[in-house]
Q: What sequence folds into this?
């Protein structure tokens, strides 16, 4: 029998607050997970806000919720008088604002036309808006139906049961790129110890996670701009950390392409035993009329300190890291610029393990270590990684400023900065994209990496980050 959904939700609204409170263990997990990716300076729109619990608990500065049920909105206003909630169907969005985050929590199953609602999100999205969609896994349909039958769960009208692939396809058709998917909660009932084990540990493990009740899709706007507009869209700062790289410094300048509407080069030298600093000063003098060059000398050890110094001093809108050993070609920076300027990603990570390498480009144990950490990151961050330790990484300066504030969340002991930036980008809910590059042999000097010492530090970071990312 057909049931009008608006009539249905109006009818259950008076009991909704009490029912949701009774099932708060389940609902609070969704709120906690969304809050992980929402930040205090974000503006948030929730479509289908119901009685307002999730929206109220988000830590964002600016929050608006809409729902097509006037009775749900009435209950939300009664429960949270200061919350901005409005009666408005998702198919007819009429808001004169662009939001940083848009959340659709356990909603799409009830929509008559999912694609129409998702397409409407374009009207309230800017270039960097992130969409978070959560919904029941279709494998839970018989279990939830049984819950309704025995009275444990509120009966609902017939709804859409979609797989993650179907949800992601709907988002793509509506103009959004899905960059991450995740699953949470195997046991949606709270029983001390058992629930903690099932949901806090087992639900994070391979295979078991396929049994989770909640699927999450994270998506960003697909931008459609001409190549000419993209080519001159942003200013760029290229940070070049250099230690014992004297023989490569001039080649950086000779091979550097013009990027964006202006290109700034920032050399940061630290603790070299050769004449790297002298060479940097020399090229600044010789090329100053052609390039916008800054150079700094620091005493702190490690590439991470050099990168941070360069990022602090950078004046460009896009920040790039190019190792002075030139094992990644400066010419490839054009691809990185195009990827971030066209909106394909917010954080572009180089991947050296796609193309065949030159014979001496990467030692065998280094390659094994890279593949090991790539597998850990694929599990940790819920998206596939091929290479986490490529030195070439690109992000927006405005995002780096936010990442700095969050740095204390993961700890501050990464000697290279690769994990620090990747973990930080994930916490900021940035779209991380890998870009394949060819990895070349060194033509001067030797690596500054200690395979075992530094590998142990990076492994320690992964264990620490797992507590902050996976087991939340």
A:
């Amino acid at each position: 029998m057909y049931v009008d959904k608006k009539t249905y939700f109006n009818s259950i609204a008076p009991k909704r607050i009490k029912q949701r409170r009774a099932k708060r263990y389940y609902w609070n997990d969704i709120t906690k997970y969304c809050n992980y990716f929402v930040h205090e300076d974000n503006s948030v729109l929730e479509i289908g806000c119901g009685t307002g619990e999730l929206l109220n608990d988000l830590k964002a500065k600016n929050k608006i919720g809409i729902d097509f049920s006037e009775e749900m909105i009435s209950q939300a206003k009664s429960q949270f008088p200061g919350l901005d909630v409005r009666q408005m169907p998702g198919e007819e969005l009429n808001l004169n604002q662009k939001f940083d985050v848009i959340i659709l929590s356990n909603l799409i199953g009830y929509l008559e036309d999912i694609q129409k609602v998702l397409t409407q999100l374009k009207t309230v999205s800017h270039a960097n808006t992130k969409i978070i969609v959560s919904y029941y896994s279709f494998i839970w349909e018989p279990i939830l139906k049984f819950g309704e039958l025995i009275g444990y769960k509120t009966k609902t009208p017939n709804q859409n049961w979609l797989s993650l692939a179907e949800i992601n396809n709907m988002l793509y058709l509506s103009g959004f790129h899905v960059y991450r998917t995740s699953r949470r909660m195997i046991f949606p009932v709270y029983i001390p110890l058992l629930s903690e084990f099932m949901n806090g540990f087992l639900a994070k493990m391979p295979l078991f996670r396929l049994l989770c009740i909640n699927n999450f899709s994270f998506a960003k706007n697909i931008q459609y701009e001409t190549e000419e507009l993209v080519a001159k869209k942003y200013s760029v700062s290229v940070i070049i950390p250099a230690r014992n790289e004297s023989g490569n410094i001039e080649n950086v300048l000779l091979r550097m392409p013009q990027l964006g509407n202006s290109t700034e080069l920032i050399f940061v030298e630290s603790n070299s035993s050769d004449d790297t600093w002298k060479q940097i000063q020399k090229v600044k003098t010789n090329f100053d009329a052609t390039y916008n060059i800054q150079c700094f000398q620091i005493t702190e050890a490690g590439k991470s300190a050099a990168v941070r110094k360069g990022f602090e001093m950078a004046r460009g809108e896009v920040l790039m890291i190019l190792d002075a050993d030139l094992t990644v070609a400066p010419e490839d920076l054009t691809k990185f610029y195009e990827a971030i300027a066209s909106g394909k990603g917010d954080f572009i990570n180089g991947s050296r393990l796609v193309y065949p390498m030159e014979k001496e480009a990467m030692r065998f144990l280094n390659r094994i270590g890279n593949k090991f950490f790539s597998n850990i990151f694929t599990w940790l961050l819920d998206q596939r990684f091929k290479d986490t330790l490529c030195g070439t990484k690109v992000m927006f300066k405005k995002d780096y400023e936010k990442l700095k504030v969050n740095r204390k969340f993961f700890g501050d002991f990464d000697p290279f900065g690769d994990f620090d930036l990747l973990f930080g980008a994930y916490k900021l809910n940035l779209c991380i994209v890998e870009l394949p590059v060819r990895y070349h042999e060194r033509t001067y000097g030797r690596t500054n990496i200690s395979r075992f010492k530094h590998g142990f530090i990076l492994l320690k970071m992964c264990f620490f980050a797992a507590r902050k990312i996976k087991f939340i």
In short: The first strand starts at residue 43 and ends at 47. The chain has two domains: 5-221, 227-469. The mean pLDDT is 89.
